[in-house]
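User: I'm curious whether this sequence folds into something compact or stays loose and floppy. Could you predict its structure so I can see for myself?
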Amino acid sequence: MLEQLDKPRHDLTGDSMWAKIDWGALSVAVVWGIGSVAAKFLLDVFSPAGFLCLRNLVGGLILLTVVALLRPRLRRSLRVSFFPLLGLGVLMGVQMLTFTIGLDLTYANEAVLVFSTAPVWTGVIVAIAGLEVMYPRNWVGFFIALGGVALVVLGAGTTPSSVAPARITGDLIMLGSAVLYGVYMILSRPLMQRHGTLVVTAVAMVFSNVVLVPVGLGELIAMPWRQLTTLHWALLAYSACIVSAYGMIMWYRSVRLKGAAQTIVYQYLVPIVTLAAAVAFLHEQPTRWQLAGIVVTLGGVYFAGQRPGAPPARPAVPN
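Assistant: Here's the prediction. I'll summarize afterward.
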């Protein structure tokens, strides 16, 4: 059952445009796009480590419960991979922490756009390691994506908030998080092939608290919980239950039903949804240069991921 999540099963029931839309993957793109804006709002009251500690503990346990229900013998099958999964969880914790710190320091639309280059870094790393081949057009796509990121970062205008050192620092940290996510995807491949993508993601998310709890637990204890509003609690539930749990489950369900090649197209909607939500709710105002940079970056990511005969790269899942 669960081990078939990564196997395509085409079952479209009609030829109309509406029938061809993968509503599950589309909903995930919207959920993930809004999720970064929700996290940005919560970071006004939570520290990055405290927010992640709470979200990953709840979201990871929900995912693990779903996986355990679908695979009753999960515990036995994972026993031989305990230490590799633990190490992967530690890496996930560090990567998510850098993502959230970067998000806290910069604009939400910039953060998600910079992070969307993660699949490109995966390709570059495996090419440098000699594991796969990067064709000339892939390298062209890589440099186009970097040029687009430069347009976004440097084209923010001249207002004091847009040239603050923290913003540039946040963008650089987010770029580092994208590289770390690329490393995570490479190291997780053997485990995902053995146990399934959703299983590895769920276990790694729980194990990520090995990093997050020591850093964030003290900050959670010192939190002025009574000052949290209903909106804060609703956004926390959204981040843990909808972004982390629903998003992962529905995304890999779409991969199983429609195939990775059709599903991954929807990842390009995530930065666009984030941009729209950031403008609407956070009052972010990207410049024309930044809007052009978004188009250039996503185009570069697309071309960098096109390899003859190779499966499509896994998406950069906003954390």
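Summary: Residues 123 and 212 are 28 Å apart (CA to CA). The chain has one domain: 22-304.
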